[in-house]
Amino acid sequence: MANESRPCPCDIGDRFDYEGCGQEVQVEHIKAYVCKPASTDKAVIVIHDIFGWQLPNTRYMADMLAANGYIAICPDFFAGKEPWKPSDDWSKFDDWLKTRDARKINKEADAVLKYLKEQCGAKKLGVVGFCWGGVAVHHLMMTYPELKAGVSLYGIIKDSDDISNLLNPTFFIFAEKDDFIPLHQVTLLEQKLKKNCKVDYEVKIYPGQTHGFVHRKREDINPQDKPYIEEGRKDMINWLNKYV
């Protein structure tokens, strides 16, 4: 996420020059990118950031999950509305975001879950999401008991949010130097989870990292960041492997 003075680093200067391994499909009223391994009944929904379902960075994450044995689907949770572009006027970002509520995606989630079960033979389901998608993961993990594991990567938290009523194990990934998610909000999340959460969870802060670090372009990585980026990706997959 971002404000007008500091554009979001999810994308700027960090875009993969990457052609996906999967294919685009129509899932009821939305489009989706799907990448499938040879044979599996495990699937992961990949939820994009503000730059939308076609961002190469996010498709790279979906392909990585497929390479680890999951059907990976990255649907257009904006349902045809334009994604944010780095060239857009950041002063209008809040108004743009109001029409794309990460907690009002049940219609899209229902369609995707039906597709995975009926068209892909998926029986075990998980979800991961980045930035805007991280907020969406919080919501889905409190709403859909069939999602057996969730990984929320740098999803913004508001003090008022009730996100401790998780239905299944959820892993929260944060960056120590995230300009958009103050560490006190992460601490508050941990306190709420410790007090109220009835399922397994983990909250992890990665030293020295900034917003968007896990799905960032590899060629532009500072050498000191590379181990944490690789660790974040490995942690995400390990969490899914454990619970899905």
From TrEMBL:
Coiled-coil ranges per UniProt: none
Primary subcellular site in the record, as a coarse category: cytoplasm
Gene3D superfamilies: alpha/beta hydrolase
Annotated ranges, domain Dienelactone hydrolase: 30-243
InterPro entries in the record: AB_hydrolase_fold, CMBL, Dienelactn_hydro
Subcellular location: Cytoplasm, Cytosol
GO cellular component term, pick one: cytosol
Keywords: Cytoplasm, Hydrolase
Top-level lineage group: Eukaryota
The UniProt record lists the keyword Lipid metabolism: no
An example molecular function term from Gene Ontology annotations: hydrolase activity
Similarity field: Belongs to the dienelactone hydrolase family.
Full protein name: Carboxymethylenebutenolidase homolog
Organism per entry: Uria aalge
Phylogenetic classification of the source organism: Eukaryota, Metazoa, Chordata, Craniata, Vertebrata
Gene: Cmbl_1
